[in-house]
Amino acid sequence: MSEPAVRGIVVAHGSMAAGLVEAATRISGVDDGVLVPISNEGLGPEGLRDAILSDAAGGPAIVFTDLAAGSCTLAARVCCSEGSPLAVVTGVNLAMLLDFLFHRDLATPDLVEHVVTTGREGVRALTFTKPKPDREPEPSANPAPDMDTTDVDSSFSG
Fold it and tell me: Which of 19, 43, 124, 139 could bridge 47 with an S-S bond, Cβ 3.0-4.6 Å?
């Protein structure tokens, strides 16, 4: 018998979880309840634990949390220690949630590795660079400054 489809549970502070889930489902078009939000607002450790266990009922799940040492992650880790078939991924971002939605056919350990890699690759430092002193800026119809992902301007104080 095949393993049930992996569900995603996003647990975060305030309205962050709902916003990420809404964005991911709008972008992906996947809206069958496979990705659900839980806010820690108004919930203590036991309330968070109960909410996670309730949403994880019925099969394996990946719990995506915002902060590695936050209350959301601590509650998810308690659920794991109680034997729930959960994996916990911290530092949730939109790139990893989209990757989760599009690759749910992978085995859970492979899916976890895949979404973590995608999440890391989705983080970039984009900086505005100043024109080099040996050249004049070229006139442009678009007055926006050049963006460069490789030449970090340490004097940028944005």
Answer: 43
